[in-house]
């Protein structure tokens, strides 16, 4: 989704466009979004123009999201990982992402504090949203990352290696060895070991 964030237009004739109604969807006013995100009004205006260009209806469904994501990772298959990222942005779980949901998620990822970003990452790995990360969830997410980027890692990572990597990370995070990772264990491990954060590719594969 980086192109949407980075698109800058010189013309300001539609500077108040965010206040106007689009085809099926009317976003919140700029002032509200400024309060709820860490973006300025100008940044929000720029992002909205890009968002509307990519998604004229004002919302993006999962298939469109996957298509956009695939543009950034043409070397692999981003389908599975884009599905998981989409779920973290789709806060109301209605199968589509509004502009508000998009910028709220993006605000955390590009301007958020480390605890805020780690909260996002925990939600990504907690696929079913039950408040814990299971080994299967860890394997699924790490596997999706390697499907998308793995052929460019050195040495090359195959499916078995991805699972092995996921299981090693899981064992290090499961501090009380009860077979699941709680939010507290996740946060504590990430605070103690920067290599864990890097090894999980938490933020490099989103923006």
Automatic annotation (TrEMBL):
SMART domains: EFh (SM00054). CDD domains: EFh. Keywords: Calcium, Metal-binding, Repeat. One of its GO terms (molecular function) is calcium ion binding. Pfam families: EF-hand_6 (PF13405), EF-hand_7 (PF13499). Residues 77-112, 113-148, 161-196 form the EF-hand domain. InterPro entries: EF-hand-dom_pair, EF_Hand_1_Ca_BS, EF_hand_dom, Recoverin. Belongs to the recoverin family. This is EF-hand domain-containing protein. It comes from Dreissena polymorpha (Zebra mussel).
